[in-house]
Design brief:
9 strands; mainly beta; 5-stranded mixed beta sheet
């Protein structure tokens, strides 16, 4: 079973851009895609996942779709603007924050990852 969530964002700079989250239970992978970024994570490597509300803004000097580093304290942030965020931590210490359009999208991703 494959679940795909596409977040188009709400920022003017995001027009025509999207973040795509694909969870493939048959292959056992989570695929995160954003402009100029792609990361595949094995579902067995996910240690924790949670959904939170978000303001859709980047909180640093750089306002790009992907900011941060996976092994930094805040991890990688994939953001085209939105109202909710999925926080993912892996067993090796990498962290990812994926901003999506709605709380429902965040809940869908979180539920699918907890199932896997």
């Amino acid at each position: 079973m494959t679940i795909r969530v596409i977040a188009h964002g709400n920022r003017f700079a995001s027009v025509g851009r999207a973040i795509v989250v694909t969870i493939d239970h048959d292959a056992g992978t989570l695929d995160l895609r954003a402009p100029f970024y792609r990361r595949t994570i094995r579902l067995t490597d996910i240690a924790a996942v949670s959904a939170e509300s978000d303001d859709g803004m980047n909180h640093g000097l750089v306002n790009w779709f992907v900011t941060g580093k996976a092994y930094s304290p805040n991890g990688v942030r994939l953001n085209t603007g939105g109202k909710a965020r999925v926080d993912i931590a892996t067993t090796d210490g990498a962290r990812y924050a994926v901003v999506v359009d709605t709380v429902e999208q965040a809940d869908t991703i979180t539920a699918a990852l907890r199932k896997g």
